[in-house]
Amino acid sequence: xxxxxxxxxxxxxxxxxxxxxxxxxxxxxxxxxxxxxxxxxxxxxxxxxxxxxxxxxxxxxxxxxxxxxxxxxxxxxxxxxxxxxxxxxxxxxxxxxxxxxxxxxxxxxxxxxxxxxxxxxxxxxxxxxxxxxxxxxxxxxxxxxxxxxxxxxxxxxxxxxxxxxxxxxxxxxxxxxxxxxxxxxxxxxxxxxxxxxxxxxxxxxxxxxxxxxxxxxxxxxxxxxxxxxxxxxxxxxxxxxxxxxxxxxxxxxxxxxxxxxxxxxxxxxxxxxxxxxxxxxxxxxxxxxxxxxxxxxxxxxxxxxxxxxxxxxxxxxxxxxxxxxxxxxxxxxxxxxxxxxxxxxxxxxxxxxxxxxxxxxxxxxxxxxxxxxxxxxxxxxxxxxxxxxxxxxxxxxxxxxxxxxxxxxxxxxxxxxxxxxxxxxxxxxxxxxxxxxxxxxxxxxxxxxxx
Length: 451
Ligand code: SF4
Description:
This protein is an alpha/beta fold. 33% of the residues lie in helices and 13% in strands. Strands 1-2-3-4-5-6-7-8-9 form a 9-stranded mixed beta sheet. Strands 10-11-12 form a 3-stranded antiparallel beta sheet, with helices on one face.
């Protein structure tokens, strides 16, 4: 029996046929004046990447040379006075930015904020929007879900993302935000392991941060092996944005790669899962280097899942989201989550409405196999955990107020997520500007759920 032809009329987007199979392999870094003579071998070395990572505004100016216009540099300097995140960008990502079109470039937006793009924080933003510190029984550990914990062995990363949900601790203090950033230190982890050993309901440990890329090979092994030896632990996940922003480390840092694979093999021998959760947010991050890194991980049987963060002007577009989904899946990465942006400081320009997330989810679903389709979730402010974006109890779209419950995480509690005010109608914006109106809108929304 012949298959039904796919209806072209119904397509809500257009992606050139098989575009997700194209992986750029050009010497793109040579467009950066300061790196015009860098060879492929140099650029492909993790040590060169680390040595040449951009951590200061002056370095941006130096490597960009003639591309560093006065307006661009003034806007970047302005951004540094507002942002809660310091600069740290790998040459890999820096060179993938289209500097001729830096205003709209999705990579520049994520890693090098311009002062001109910031908006005032939402009145209900919080430094620790997800209440990770509140749900922390011992330092460096969050225990919210019954069988799962989040372990933060370090708060350093190979890049610092402008949209970081843990901007309260990650990446060192800035002009606007002092913080208690810490590096990896085995001594500080003892209480974490003791807590996990004592609580036999815990089966799953996320090793995040910060970023597991910043652990030494010995630390990767120590953490992995210590956890796998605890009888009730069944699954561990190393969370790293590394594959997306520094795939060259997977390809060329043999010691780090071997440590990871050793832990994975130990997991297999114990009948336990060791996987990586990574963090591609848009197609522009993906090149042949990403594919080579994934080929190496896949050849050793390591499963990688992707978690993207929904960001305005980066990936809140059906074509871009479908392309990202297909492309990561093509590299054998399982698209797992797309997160509604958290209500943290310095991020209002990135946030989308919940309605937008729901529409995107609907548009992406059905474009590929279900197991390769990400679930769009809202991580509830106040620590209700992740909920499907359409599973709210009540949503006042006009005023951007959604009310949620999380019966298996915090029974009896209600949670609220607020859309960015600048995306609402002028009338709704006016209501938000009036404290009395604001209180009654919120009280009204809560009443709808608790009636
Ligand atoms: S890699 Fe993750 S933890 Fe680090 S700055 Fe980016 S979002 Fe934050």
